[in-house]
Amino acid sequence: MEGIDHLADERNKAEFDVEDMKIVWAGSRHAFEVSDRIARLVASDPVFEKSNRARLSRKELFKSTLRKCAHAFKRIIELRLNEEEAGRLRHFIDQPAYVDLHWGMFVPAIKGQGTEEQQKKWLSLANKMQIIGCYAQTELGHGSNVQGLETTATFDPKTDEFVIHTPTQTASKWWPGGLGKVSTHAVVYARLITNGKDYGIHGFIVQLRSLEDHSPLPNITVGDIGTKMGNGAYNSMDNGFLMFDHVRIPRDQMLMRLSKVTREGEYVPSDVPKQLVYGTMVYVRQTIVADASNALSRAVCIATRYSAVRRQFGAHNGGIETQVIDYKTQQNRLFPLLASAYAFRFVGEWLKWLYTDVTERLAASDFATLPEAHACTAGLKSLTTTATADGIEECRKLCGGHGYLWCSGLPELFAVYVPACTYEGDNVVLQLQVARFLMKTVAQLGSGKVPVGTTAYMGRAAHLLQCRSGVQKAEDWLNPDAVLEAFEARALRMAVTCAKNLSKFENQEQGFQELLADLVEAAIAHCQLIVVSKFIAKLEQDIGGKGVKKQLNNLCYIYALYLLHKHLGDFLSTNCITPKQASLANDQLRSLYTQVRPNAVALVDAFNYTDHYLNSVLGRYDGNVYPKLFEEAWKDPLNDSVVPDGYHEYLRPVLKQQLRTARL
Ligand SMILES: CCCCCCCC/C=C\CCC/C=C/C(=O)SCCNC(=O)CCNC(=O)[C@H](O)C(C)(C)COP(=O)(O)OP(=O)(O)OC[C@H]1O[C@@H](n2cnc3c(N)ncnc32)[C@H](O)[C@@H]1OP(=O)(O)O
Ligand SMILES: Cc1cc2nc3c(=O)[nH]c(=O)nc-3n(C[C@H](O)[C@H](O)[C@H](O)COP(=O)(O)OP(=O)(O)OC[C@H]3O[C@@H](n4cnc5c(N)ncnc54)[C@H](O)[C@@H]3O)c2cc1C
């Protein structure tokens, strides 16, 4: 059956041009060509083989990760890959590794917080990987509460040095990726103390290991924090612990772009907002949003192809059974995830634009949009990672029993992805940041300050607080204004209700703590509005290609109406829609599922994933699932011998009843 495309019928049904959709998914023809070329390069290189990852011991997995990273670096140099191509190469190698933190956080932290001189010195080393760095912020006792970090950096004017110290066990750095076994350097976040005064958290470049023999430098204790969830999965990463015993570094290793300490030990505060010290987190949260669509689309691609291959029930007189993708229940679980993958793609594109815009403004000393950029990156990171992690698990269930096999690709994908709900800010803690931003915006309504950007809708409070949806028939739910109005009214009404409830408390902070759960829900409603509105905005762009826009339109309204259905309680209790309108939305949703059904396989083909990248027997491009499941089963070490190890010691005595006591 090798060489036969078992999904050919599905592909023939498609009503749009897949090649054109591939360009839309990639973002541009250029981006598509780069991704396509690099994905094939990785897939054809035996060093990047990954099908046996789960069977490796932690040590073997880690060593093979080091090998892959070194080989990737060699190929980048040999092929003279540019930054974009190198990034795609690391992406398609698809193995969490120290390089993610080196390129993803260490380098950006120096770029964002280092002076020009510091950038020149440290980036020239980091860019050539003559030093390897990590981002050491979280401590054993403090992760979310950055202000609560305990590590100290005390200035010693006698020697012009900072003394980096871990005063307690809870102050030990704990979690930084790449720290455990690899990094030679770290950007360490510590409390800056000079002239006996604590000036709060600042970043410092600290060398951890010898560049000669890799041993830890004196007074530094460093190691790996231990095995994490899942076989293979995130265990290729050396998340580490780190303790300093009065380690001295030169004063000029404090990242001084924002604030400084002079030779005399005087603290010179920054003339820009102090929150810019959190800038690396804003950057990474933005990349995590862009990455959510990769992970979700991968799971959806596997579940969609397999749902088209898999048949259950419905056979009459020995005929073939029904493809499980034809069951409305399967569609109701799968198609909203397909739509979410596209929605997150487009909101990720938009967030990248927002981040670039705020960065340019900051460079021109315009800080006005920083709070919004923080709220958007925090809220969308939280929203998209939660939905993606849940979505991957749903895809596993959509694949029935075979989804639970490691070779489905889904267990490992879930185990690698799920910590995204925690790292770079716990998802609840991040939504609370959005809630604070919303409460401030609501408080300013009526003050003459006009809300802008993603909160511009709040400026139409007079209308949105009292409007009733005009939807009268199912098709009305395909009207962008109707959908936007319902989402805007719901988000605003939830925020305003929270603000009203807050105002009943004398102590605002106490009130905030009391209302945390409602505030998170209001923040989620606001973030969902952002995603829906950016999908609708995408449809307003000039999108070419046969039938492409129609498909995107269907997916956009599936995303919106599915959310409406899922959060019906919000929409009904805030009187944004009536039960009748909710029922019409459901009718429309079912109709959209029917329209997407013949296009489903082509819509996941548009992700252009190689079989290597998917690493899934169930998600194979050719749909040749069953023989390949057998092949994988035969490869399992338990099948190396017909009679298992341990038979003579532990099975035979049981079977032969040699373990029976005399009494029995
Ligand atoms: C394409 C491929 C891409 C792949 C993508 C993968 C990349 C890497 C992959 C994987 C590796 C994972 C690596 C993980 C790394 C980490 O986890 S690093 C550690 C991350 N840690 C956190 O995120 C901690 C979370 N906590 C915080 O961010 C903050 O402490 C806080 C919760 C925001 C609270 O801050 P604070 O204590 O200061 O308290 P507040 O009083 O609430 O805030 C003060 C004001 O500051 C504003 N604020 C807060 N944060 C920011 C920010 N980041 N930017 C701008 N402004 C900020 C806040 O709104 C307050 O403002 P106000 O005074 O006006 O109200
Ligand atoms: C795989 C992985 C990689 C990581 N990589 C790095 C790295 O490279 N560098 C680095 O510095 N760190 C890293 N981290 C650490 C990560 O950033 C933190 O774990 C994260 O910020 C969450 O903090 P925490 O662990 O302290 O959670 P906690 O804050 O202890 O959260 C525990 C619970 O308390 C709740 N909670 C906490 N505060 C509040 C509040 N104010 N209101 C309501 N609820 C609250 C949370 O919602 C959560 O349910 C990594 C973590 C993981 C899992």
From TrEMBL:
Family: Belongs to the acyl-CoA oxidase family.
Cofactor: FAD
First and last residue of the signal peptide: none
InterPro entries: ACOX_C_alpha1, Acyl-CoA_ox_N, Acyl-CoA_Oxase/DH_mid-dom, Acyl-CoA_oxidase, Acyl-CoA_oxidase_C
Pfam family, one: ACOX_C_alpha1
Compartment annotation: Peroxisome
Keyword annotations from UniProtKB, A to Z: FAD, Fatty acid metabolism, Flavoprotein, Lipid metabolism, Oxidoreductase, Peroxisome
Domain Acyl-CoA oxidase C-terminal residues, every copy: 479-656
UniProt entry tagged with the keyword Aminoacyl-tRNA synthetase: no
Residue span(s) of domain Acyl-CoA oxidase C-alpha1: 278-439
Gene Ontology cellular-component annotations: peroxisome
MF-aspect GO terms: acyl-CoA oxidase activity; FAD binding; fatty acid binding
UniProt-listed GO biological process terms: fatty acid beta-oxidation using acyl-CoA oxidase; lipid homeostasis; long-chain fatty acid metabolic process
Protein species of origin: Arabidopsis suecica (Swedish thale-cress)
Domain Acyl-CoA oxidase/dehydrogenase middle: 134-235
Listed name of the protein: Acyl-coenzyme A oxidase
Residue stretches making up the Acyl-coenzyme A oxidase N-terminal domain: 17-132
